[in-house]
């Protein structure tokens, strides 16, 4: 078996490989054949770029190319020929082409450019396009960077339940029932998890620092470009940590991700900078080097009230911020990422630590330009009596959550954590505007 090279290896080493014989595996992107020569554009998935095969001389090879359809899988052997004056710095003079899998003439990706709306109708094929080669490779590298960041800080990776009875967010959830019935499969209400945070806190109180990274689900009937019914969340939890430490960790994670993809995905980032957002790379570099702003909710409301006529939704203390408000704060007021802290307790979840004013909680949202909220977190309520009172105020079941509350009885610590939506992060670092284009198989109302 001949060990195949890759298109990425050739781009990185073509000068030293000039005149050498290489073997490539890949898929045909385009075919142009003439009387004496044929040209094949080949992609192998190792990088967003393609390589041009030049076919001429060998009659059998030439006849094979004339029968190729776009999308066919082939194995090619040929010579590397450097072409410093051409658009591509090298090409392959093909000597042998073997068809591994043919492609039918009705292959949907015949054109160079397709709308994102059309590509959503063929999620099984859209990873073969330049756009989604870039987005999904970056998604892979972002995922690696997340694990790398927490591993470097000695966090323990916890696998929290996908099926759970805990509800951290209070959002509509998908119920788990016995097949063909409405009976509770586990003998009590259970649903697909919307957050692994509550279970992760148990690990934080044992290991000190932990994080979850897995799929989460919301049963919201929402078709906005920012919402999906299935998405991935990164949720660290840290014992002996307050809100300031929480923000420090979140800022470090976001910067680590950005630096990593700028280093590991240069071709993909260049493509997105050219075809999606021509300010993308510059903007991300600015964020990686910026010191994130920190501002209290009350101050932000005061600033927004001065320009309230700019907004569709009303602004006032106690109002939940909409995306237009979040983006205005990060894009116009601060002109960089900003942590908003200490929201009114009525706007936030029961587990957030009550501040001394009795009106606000020790929480933070990270707002970034072009996206709005990217991270949401808080210092958790470690005082049993305060947590019990808060749950009673909200009518939450103490019995169902006694396991969670009991953590406050047995060696409680100040502790904090946050959630970062993977798809939101992908949208931010790629510039794409719709969450459906940040996940391989999007699950939204009516779409499966």
Structure description:
By secondary structure, the chain is α+β, with helices and mostly antiparallel strands. Helices cover 32% and strands 23% of the residues. The strands form three sheets. An eight-stranded mixed beta sheet has the order 6-9-10-15-14-13-12-11, sandwiched between helices. Strand 13 (363-368) and strand 14 (372-380) form a beta hairpin. Helix 4 (130-152) packs across helix 7 (266-275). The longest helix has 23 residues, at 130-152. The protein is elongated. The two termini are 40 Å apart. The model has no long low-confidence stretch (mean pLDDT 93).
Sheet of most strands = 8 strands, mixed
Overall morphology: elongated
| Lateral strand order in the biggest sheet | 6-9-10-15-14-13-12-11
Radius of gyration: 26 Å
Q: How many DSSP E strands?
A: 15
Helical content band? 25-40%
Strand content: 15-25%
Low-confidence segments: none
Helical stretch tally: 13
SSE pattern = HEEEHEEHHEEEHEEHHHEHHEEEHHEH
Supply the helix-strand structural class: alpha+beta
Mean of residue pLDDT values? 93
Please report the distance between the alpha carbons of the first and last residues: 40 Å
């Amino acid at each position: 078996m001949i060990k195949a090279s890759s298109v990425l290896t050739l781009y990185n080493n073509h000068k030293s490989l000039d005149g050498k014989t290489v073997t490539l595996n890949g898929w045909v992107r385009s075919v142009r054949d003439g009387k004496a020569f044929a040209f094949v554009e080949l992609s192998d998935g190792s990088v967003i770029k393609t390589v041009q095969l030049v076919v001429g001389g060998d009659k059998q090879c030439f006849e094979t190319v004339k029968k190729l359809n776009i999308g066919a899988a082939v194995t090619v052997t040929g010579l590397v020929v450097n072409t410093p004056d051409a658009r591509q710095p090298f090409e392959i003079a093909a000597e042998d082409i073997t068809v591994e899998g043919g492609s039918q003439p009705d292959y949907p990706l015949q054109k160079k450019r397709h709308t994102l709306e059309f590509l959503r109708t063929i999620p099984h094929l859209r990873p073969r396009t330049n756009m989604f080669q870039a987005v999904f490779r970056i998604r892979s590298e972002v995922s690696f960077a997340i694990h790398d960041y927490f591993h470097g800080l000695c966090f323990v990776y916890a696998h929290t339940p996908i099926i759970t009875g805990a509800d951290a967010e209070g959002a509509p959830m998908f119920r788990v029932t016995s097949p063909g019935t409405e009976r509770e499969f586990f003998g009590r209400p259970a649903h697909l998890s919307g957050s692994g945070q509550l279970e992760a806190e148990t690990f934080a109180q044992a290991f000190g620092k932990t994080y979850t990274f897995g799929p989460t689900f919301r049963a919201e009937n929402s078709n906005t470009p920012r919402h999906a019914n299935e998405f991935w969340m990164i949720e660290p939890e840290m014992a002996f940590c307050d809100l300031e430490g929480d923000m420090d960790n979140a800022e470090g994670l976001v910067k680590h991700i950005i630096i990593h993809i700028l280093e590991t995905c240069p071709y993909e980032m260049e493509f997105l900078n050219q075809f999606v957002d021509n300010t993308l790379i510059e903007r991300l570099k600015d964020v990686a080097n910026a010191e994130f702003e920190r501002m209290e909710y009350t101050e932000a409301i005061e600033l927004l009230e001065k320009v309230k006529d700019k907004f569709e939704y009303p602004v006032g203390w106690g109002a939940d911020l909409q995306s237009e408000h979040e983006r205005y704060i990060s894009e116009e007021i601060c002109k960089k990422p900003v942590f908003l802290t200490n929201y009114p307790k009525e706007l936030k979840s029961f587990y957030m630590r009550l501040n001394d004013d009795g009106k606000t909680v020790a929480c933070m949202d990270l707002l970034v330009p072009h996206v709005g909220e990217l991270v949401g977190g808080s210092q958790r309520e470690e005082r049993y009596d305060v947590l019990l009172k808060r749950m009673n105020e909200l009518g939450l079941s103490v019995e169902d959550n006694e396991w969670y509350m009991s953590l406050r009885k047995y060696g409680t610590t100040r502790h904090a954590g946050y959630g970062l939506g993977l798809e939101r992060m992908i949208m931010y670092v790629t510039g794409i505007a719709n969450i459906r284009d940040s996940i391989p198989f999007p699950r939204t109302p009516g779409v499966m």
